[in-house]
Sequence to fold (271 residues):
Amino acid sequence: MFEARLIQGSVLKKMIDAIKDIVTDINLDCSSTGISVQAMDSGHVCLVLIELGSDGFEPYRCDRNITLGLGLKALSVVVRCANNDDSITIKAQEGTDNINFVFESPNGEKTSQFEIKLMDIDSEHLGIPDTEYDSVVKMPSHEFQRICRDMSQLGDSIVVACTKDGIQFSASGDMGSGKINLRQSSLVDKEEDQINIELNDPVHLTFALRYLNYFTKATPLSPTVTLSLKAESPLCVTYPIGDFGSMKFFLAPKIDD
Amino acid sequence: KNLQKPLLLYYDDP
Fold:
């Protein structure tokens, strides 16, 4: 038996909105410690990794490790039927090919139940090692979203460069070019407005803006985002989910032919 | 500058 109740059901809605343009099907890998999802886009250049600890759910019950394969289209349709302040309970019995969703309003007056057929999804799992990044930049998530949106008006690619002077985003195309510099903030009122730059080594990488714009669909999940960069390695974009989980996106850099 | 290698070339398939 698997059962997990998320008090803030809107978090699930936001998670699905954040990935539905990148992947079509997902496997929920459920264990006693929590739920994880790993999925790649069809081009195999970006990967989504969601990790949700069991402590984010009340109750959480997972008697035996179970993998639940779901089509995001169906999931998206069902979850859209929940109100933002509803709790969402996910239930699956062993040996059945359905997953159940129960939505409950805060006062308990309205409950809704939905069922989705499970799918057999062939997914490749990649082992992502703990990486020592050259630079780790934490910034407001809306700021990162804005930069990606603005830069995609100029070109298809964005160059991200971290030096001791800060982080620079640049793009160029037929129309012209643009550069945006961010420096580490000194004094800010709110921690979530802070720009924090950890620099071990200067780093300079190019990425496809199309994917970064997909990743920023996760902005409603968190006020902050972390960019982890390493030379000649995939970028890792992390959105924390409350204090119990995270959504990470990995993207291969563009390289010289 | 348009090549992106698939992630499989960066990370192992365990």
